[in-house]
Structures are given as C-alpha cells and as structure tokens.
C-alpha cells in the first residue's frame, strides 16, 4: 500500500515539477535614438562628404507599463537636435516632457499604438535674415500625437518603435510632422 501511495504521489507530482516557472513580462523600458535627420540637405551633403548643415538628432526616454492596465505606458523623454556648422548658422533645440502610449492591437511581434506627449522646448537658432545673422532663442510649449508600430518578439528584451509625430510646434527642420524611431531595451 505504501508503494502504491508513493507511486500515485510521484505520478501526479511530476507534471507540477516539470512545469517551468513563467517569468513576468518586463515592465520598464529605456529607448534611445541617435541619427542624422534624413532631409534633402543630408542627401546633398552625403554626395559631397561634408555634413556642416545636417541636423543631428539624439533622444532618450524612459517608460513603464501601468500596473492597473498593461496596455498603457507612461514615461519621460528628452530630445536634442542640432546642426554643426562652420559658418555660425545653425539650430539647437532641446525638448523635454512626459509621454503616454496606449497599445491598440497586437499581432505576433507587431504592436500598433497611439502615443502623445506634452513637451517644453528651448531653442537657440542662428539664421541669416536679409544678409544679417540673427539669433532667435526662447522657450515654448507644445504637444504631439503619433500613431506607430512596435516590433518586439516575446523572447527578446529589445524592440523597435516606428512612429509619425504630428505636433503643434515645429519639431525638426521647421516641420510639424516627422518620422521618428526608437530602439528600446526592456527590463
């Protein structure tokens, strides 16, 4: 009888022991972006090998899934873009503010989302107006909305965001709508 009880216990306990412990999905993310802004000036200068008027874009963000709704991500973002010009003309813009994302639909490793952000901007731009160099600097507020798609496999801690931002204030190259991307690390 003891042997039968032991075999019964082992038989029904093995499936419980064999099951892998599922790891919770990472709820934090850090995203980065560093690239030239791909406009006509960039491609003109690419042919000549000189990038004195090209806008360089750097961005960093942090986000976290809300515990009450895993489809909502909130966080903060800092963006800097600047030209590195030899003739004292150029742009320097710094943006900072909170952002929020709602995951709309997921299909395999693709996740469609809507994102919005309110941000503060500091700008210091030196431009040529009527032959004179003029510095325009100041502080402004704005917000953007952006549809996008995120590519992330369930096994990977890395993902890629592709989104199109529509803003109330010019974002880059005096445009109010721009394509953007982020590479994210989830932890």
Quick summary of this structure?
This protein is mostly beta strands and 187 residues long. The protein has two helices and eight strands.
Structural notes for this entry:
There is one protein chain. The chain has helices at residues 2-18, 40-48, and strands at 28-36, 55-65, 72-83, 92-107, 110-129, 132-151, 158-167, 177-186. It has 2 helices and 8 strands, in the order H-E-H-E-E-E-E-E-E-E. The protein is mainly beta and 187 residues long. The longest helix has 17 residues, at 2-18. The protein has one domain (26-186): Porin.
| Helix coverage percent | 10-25%
* CATH topology value: Porin
| Count of individual helical segments | 2
Mean pLDDT: 85
* Uncertain residue ranges: 14-20
Task: Provide the CATH top-level class.
Answer: Mainly Beta
Q: Which strand order do you get reading across the main beta sheet?
A: 1-2-3-4-5-6-7-8
CATH architecture: Beta Barrel
Q: Note the main sheet.
A: 8 strands, antiparallel, barrel
Shape: elongated
Terminal residue distance? 51 Å
Number of domains: 1
**Structural class by secondary-structure content:** mainly beta
The radius of gyration computed from the alpha-carbon positions, rounded to a whole number of angstroms, is 24 Å
Strand content: over 45%
Which helices and strands appear, and what pairs or packs with what?
Blueprint: H1 2-18, E1 28-36, H2 40-48, E2 55-65, E3 72-83, E4 92-107, E5 110-129, E6 132-151, E7 158-167, E8 177-186
């Amino acid at each position: 009888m003891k042997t039968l009880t032991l075999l019964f216990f082992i038989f029904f306990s093995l499936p419980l022991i064999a099951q892998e412990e599922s790891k919770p999905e990472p709820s934090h993310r850090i995203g980065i972006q560093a690239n030239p802004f791909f406009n006509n000036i960039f491609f003109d200068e690419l042919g000549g090998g000189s990038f004195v008027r090209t806008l360089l874009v750097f961005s960093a963000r942090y986000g976290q899934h809300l515990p009450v709704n895993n489809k909502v991500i909130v966080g903060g973002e800092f963006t800097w873009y600047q030209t590195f010009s030899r003739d004292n003309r150029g742009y320097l813009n710094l943006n900072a503010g909170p952002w929020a994302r709602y995951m709309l639909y997921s299909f395999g490793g693709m996740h469609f989302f809507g994102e919005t952000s309110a941000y503060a901007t500091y700008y210091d731009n030196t431009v040529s107006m009527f032959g004179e160099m003029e510095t325009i600097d100041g502080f402004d507020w704005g917000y953007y909305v952006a549809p996008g798609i995120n590519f992330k496999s369930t096994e990977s801690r890395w993902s890629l965001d592709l989104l199109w931002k529509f803003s109330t204030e010019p974002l880059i190259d005096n445009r109010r709508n721009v394509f953007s991307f982020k590479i994210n690390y989830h932890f």
